Amino acid sequence: MELTGSNLDLEKVKHIVYDFETVTIxxxxxxxVKKSRATVQEYLDQHQIIYGINTGxxxxxxxxxxxxxxxxxxxxxxxxxxxGVGEPFSEYVSRAMILLRANALLKGFSGVRPVIIERxxxxxxxxxxxxxxxxxxxxxxxxxxxxxxxxxVLLGEGEVFYKGEHVPTAIAFNQEKLDPIQLKAKxxxxxxxxxxxxxxxxxxxxxxxxxxxxxSEKIAAMTMEGLQSITCAFDDLIxxxxxxxxxxxxxxxxxxxxxxxxLTTKQGEKRVQDAYSIRCIPQVLGASWQTLKYVEEKLExxxxxxxxxxxxxxxEGKVLSGGNFHGQPIAIAMDLLKIxxxxxxxxxxxxxxxxxxxxxxxxxxxxxxxxGLQSGAMIMQYTAASLVSENxxxxxxASVDSIPSSANQEDHVSMGTIGARHAAHxxxxxxxxxxxxxxxxxxxxELRGGPSHMAETTSNLYQTAREIVPSIKRDRVFSKDIERxxxxxxx
Length: 491
Fold this sequence. Notes:
Number of strands: 9
Oligomer: single chain
Order of helices and strands: EHEHHEHHEEHEEHHHHHHHEEHHHHH
Mean pLDDT: 96
Helix content: 55-70%
Number of helices: 18
Largest sheet: 3 strands, antiparallel
């Protein structure tokens, strides 16, 4: 796949990150990169003072750096800023960060030499992925700490994931015959001044969320069969009357999933109305789809954005300092993603309660094979409730917080990386909650007569999931079932 600095979309990121697709660089775009680098050199030759090229950083922006010290300035920048802490991001996130940083530099506004981008592409194609601690970014001036750990690897320093192990970068470089790079003026700053950590986490979280939301609809449809729910609430007349496109689409899909089912009912047959967690599936999940649509738009813009500072505009003869490193667009998108996906779990947990609570259905209490002697799904509902409660804490917006840094020079930050990390965590929790709903829904439809009475779509889902989690014939360690099923939902 050829990178141009402007041609990435989320599907391409998915293939490069998860399928390890080989990446090449547009030679036409490299010409613009060379032109941008020549502009930097021209300004240096003219002894013009440009932030981050021959000055200090942040509060030190008024400190002029001597020409002989410019390379050391960039090296010191990477070393001093590589102070991330905590568990490392996954290899997939690390790989996405490399890809997005290379794509941003390839736009030709950053003033780096082509070798910087070429080495980033080498990391992708040789599957050398920096070990990058998750914590330490304020989300402006970009993801400084995480990206500094990425940049360390270009210097031959730090650690990498390589062939299934954590190893010093030097070992991986030696095996792949790659040479470390000595940074020149502007290059260290260009590597770390950007939003690629929060955006990488955000892209992968979005891809997970989109897949998970699709599954949640099918599982909700199976729950409806287990509870003999009313399909009239999904009539297109209702949803067309309100006008939200995504709501109408969810209702249409639920009707398709339940087409031919012998387990659902019409209003008045068993009851007049179902509870909101059933009846309002299109309204709630439709709103979550609206959220994902907004998130997708912001991510697709950001993965093709120039986000460092200063930016080099060679054609106009300008080097301009600005604030494209500020992560607020992604920070707000991640906070919305958190809320949209937390609601998926909130509603799922309420359906789980309706499946296991004997006061709310005519099924065996807690779907137990021997109520009293065996607890059945009782504590699975507890687990779902715990995860949902945790999500409510994680869903608190990160973007409304700001702590000034660099002696108040950087006096408003986005906390976007925290928001992205929390979004990914929420999605993991949601996946486990809907896995629990699927376990309970399968047990309920089994008690109603099983696949022969189900719609084709839900029957297929039931039979596939039953290969992973067997029927509850007696109490067992359900934790293993939940984990196996959530892994399947993720894959």
